[in-house]
């Protein structure tokens, strides 16, 4: 069969879809891939050749003020205008790219963001739509900080979906017009769900017990999906880690911070006070020369599946994939969250008591020291060890996802309600 995998976002958004694409390719299917231009090289290194550029540079999006500091914009109309520009930037380009790739496709797979673009192309091409969700983004009572009565939850969630749709509606109307489709009369999420899209939940129910029952089995939780790619420095890093006591890992993925050098200084100070070694993955940070020593090591990207189990604890931003990798490693987690869905994961880590979570911008040397002291206590370490045994292996997750996508492609598309 012919699958099109079109996903936008950071590496954390792209990697699960790329892993599924690799598996579908291994099974003998034709797979066409589209990702942000800054991640084309990444997916091609995973074996997905001839990937198309899809939308705008996702790293530049993350560095935009409206993403990081929207609450500082005092004027609500300014927030609305900037949000609309941010969300719809590159929409028309994504539509053109995906429309071309989707010709004669049997199924379109997308990620959690920009599902509307893919849904409209799927409708126009009359092919099934599937999406990987990295956190529970459909109506549920598990991600909010307080439990709400059913009618209140449904009304509030529907209003939020409608508000999001109104922000992007002009861009979507233009897209639907270009595709020869009539203007949409109901919110995008409703059309996606009622259109029969298969929504695979790429996380474990361990984090949201009872969620499957609440959704009555309509959305399968397949577990976190990762490529688990090796890096060129794996052997050298393993030697450094084994030469002394296990280090504490620090890494914040694609998340930009105001002062990387100050963050590294804080980490170094905290680990010195605790008598711990530090392994710092700089990610997208632009770091000047930093004097390393036997207690602190700066590296680029690392293989989470190899590195995390050999650490004392894992400190990170709280992205869905990194949360899963840290819990799967069986060591305590400390989340210093920045934005997006990260507060959801921070809340679950606190609830499970396999680690500690707090906001990055409010973190000080003192609060980080206290968080690590708590996370490294025997009770937290034991709960982390037990939680790891309940996680789904990525190989099983990706196999299950591929099975479900093959079945969906064979069934065909359910007509959507406009």
How many domains, as an integer? 2
| Strand-pairing-aware structural class | alpha/beta
Into which percentage range does the β-strand content fall? 5-15%
CATH class of the largest domain: Alpha Beta
Helix content: 40-55%
The number of distinct β-strands equals 12
CATH topology of the largest domain: Rossmann fold
Number of helices: 18
Q: Largest sheet, described in full?
A: 6 strands, parallel
**Distance between the amino and carboxyl termini:** 28 Å
Report on this structure:
- With 418 residues, this protein is an alpha/beta fold.
- The protein folds into two domains: 2-224 and 394-411, Glycogen Phosphorylase B (Rossmann fold), CATH 3.40.50.2000; 234-388, Rossmann fold.
- Helix content is 47%, strand content 12%.
- The protein is built from 18 helices and twelve strands.
- It has a six-stranded parallel β-sheet, with helices on both faces.
- Strand 4 (107-110), helix 7 and strand 5 form a beta-alpha-beta unit.
- Helix 1 crosses helix 18, helix 6 (91-101) packs across helix 8 and helix 12 crosses helix 16 (365-375).
- The model has no long low-confidence stretch (mean pLDDT 90).
């Amino acid at each position: 069969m012919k699958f099109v995998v079109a996903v936008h976002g950071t590496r954390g958004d792209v990697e699960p879809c790329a892993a599924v694409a690799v598996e579908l390719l291994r099974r003998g299917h034709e797979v066409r891939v589209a990702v942000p231009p800054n991640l084309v090289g990444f997916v091609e290194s995973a074996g997905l050749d001839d990937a198309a550029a899809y939308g705008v540079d996702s790293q530049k999006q993350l560095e935009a003020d409206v993403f990081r500091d929207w609450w500082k914009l005092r004027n609500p109309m300014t927030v609305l205008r900037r949000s609309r520009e941010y969300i719809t930037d590159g929409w028309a380009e994504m539509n053109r790219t995906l429309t071309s790739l989707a010709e004669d496709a049997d199924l379109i797979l997308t990620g959690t963001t920009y599902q509307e673009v893919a849904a409209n192309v799927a409708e126009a091409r009359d092919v099934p739509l599937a999406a990987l969700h990295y956190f529970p983004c459909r109506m549920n009572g598990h991600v909010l900080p307080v439990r709400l009565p059913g009618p209140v939850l449904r009304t509030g969630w529907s209003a939020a979906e409608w508000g999001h749709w109104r922000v992007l509606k002009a861009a979507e109307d233009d897209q639907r017009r270009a595709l020869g489709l009539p203007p949409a009369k109901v919110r995008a999420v409703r059309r996606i769900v009622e259109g029969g899209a298969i929504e695979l939940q790429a996380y474990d129910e361990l984090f949201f017990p009872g969620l499957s029952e609440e959704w009555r089995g309509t959305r399968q939780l397949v577990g976190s999906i990762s490529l688990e790619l090796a890096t060129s420095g794996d052997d050298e890093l393993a030697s450094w880690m084994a030469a002394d006591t296990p280090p504490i890992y620090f890494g914040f993925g694609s998340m930009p911070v105001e002062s990387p050098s100050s963050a590294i200084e804080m980490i170094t100070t905290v680990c010195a006070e605790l008598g711990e070694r530090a392994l710092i993955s700089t990610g997208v940070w632009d770091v000047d020369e930093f004097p390393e020593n036997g207690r602190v090591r700066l590296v680029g990207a690392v293989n989470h599946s190899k590195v995390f189990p050999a650490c004392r604890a894992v400190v990170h931003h709280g992205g869905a994939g990194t949360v899963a990798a840290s819990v799967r490693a069986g060591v305590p987690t400390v989340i210093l969250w920045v934005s997006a869905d990260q507060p959801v994961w921070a809340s679950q880590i606190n609830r499970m008591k396999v680690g500690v979570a707090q906001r990055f911008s409010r973190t000080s040397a003192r609060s980080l020291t206290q968080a690590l002291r708590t996370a490294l206590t025997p009770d937290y370490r034991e709960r982390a060890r037990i939680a790891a045994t309940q996680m789904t292996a990525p190989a099983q997750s990706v196999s299950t996802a591929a099975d479900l996508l093959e079945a969906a492609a064979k069934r065909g598309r359910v007509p959507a309600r406009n």
